[in-house]
Design brief:
With about 200 residues, this protein is an alpha/beta fold. It has a single domain, classed as P-loop containing nucleotide triphosphate hydrolases (Rossmann fold, 3-Layer(aba) Sandwich). The protein is built from eight helices and five strands; from the N terminus they run βαβααβααβααβα. It has a five-stranded parallel β-sheet with strand order 2-3-1-4-5, sandwiched between helices. Helix 4 runs antiparallel to helix 5 and helix 4 packs across helix 7. The chain starts with a strand and ends with a helix.
Length: about 200
């Protein structure tokens, strides 16, 4: 069983991944943020480092997905390989922060990788509005995220909604997180788990 959690920066993906991993006693696959050698440079100079960062993420997530399938374990994954290719890279390209040559190269690499991987059994999309994302980003206080603009988050949100609207690779569960507090309110987490159980019971 492979569940993946998608959503914009600050939507709560990592936290929910860890909480679901503990609840189901499944393995958590987290996004490689701490050891990522490009993140600081990217947020300080996006145009220079956008291609490098996106290829790093693509490589990391491709490796993750292969390991997930080979392991035969139940996995909860923080963010998917699709988000890089359908949201982050096209957004950087549209903003003029990744040139045509690099974007074409990146897209061809993703298409090759996509042909070799399977989609998650269940995709959970955490939907959140901009004020909530900003609040969560400020709360966790990562230095490299301090320069993220509201315009950048808004563009990402628009692309997330368009991607989710057309998602057809498997089961999809959309959770509006703005009115939920699954960290401090057990009933909110319980509600999410109930909805997930309803989806995955048909997958076993």
């Amino acid at each position: 069983m492979h569940i993946a959690i998608a959503g914009n920066i600050g939507a709560g993906k990592t936290t929910l991944t860890q909480m679901l991993s503990r609840h189901y006693k499944w393995e958590a696959q987290l996004e490689d943020v701490v050891d990522n050698p490009y993140l600081d440079d990217f947020y300080n100079q996006m145009e220079r480092w956008s291609f490098n960062l996106q290829v790093y993420f693509l490589n990391s997530r491709f490796r993750q997905v292969l390991q997930i399938r080979e392991s035969g374990k139940h996995i909860v994954q923080d963010r998917t390989i699709y988000e890089d290719a359908h949201i982050f890279a096209p957004n950087l390209h549209a903003m003029g922060l990744m040139n045509n040559r690099d974007f074409s190269n990146y897209s061809a690499l993703f298409e090759l990788m996509e042909s070799l991987v399977q989609a998650p059994d269940l995709l959970i999309y955490l939907r959140s509005d901009i004020p909530n994302l900003v609040k969560q980003i400020h709360k966790r206080g990562r230095d490299y995220e301090s320069s993220i603009s509201i315009d950048y988050l808004s563009r990402l949100n628009e692309r997330y909604e368009a991607w989710i609207h057309n998602y057809d690779k498997g089961k999809l569960l959309i959770i509006d997180v703005d009115q939920l507090d699954f960290v401090d309110k057990p009933e909110d987490l319980g509600n999410i788990i109930e909805r997930i159980d309803g989806e995955i019971n048909g997958l076993f």
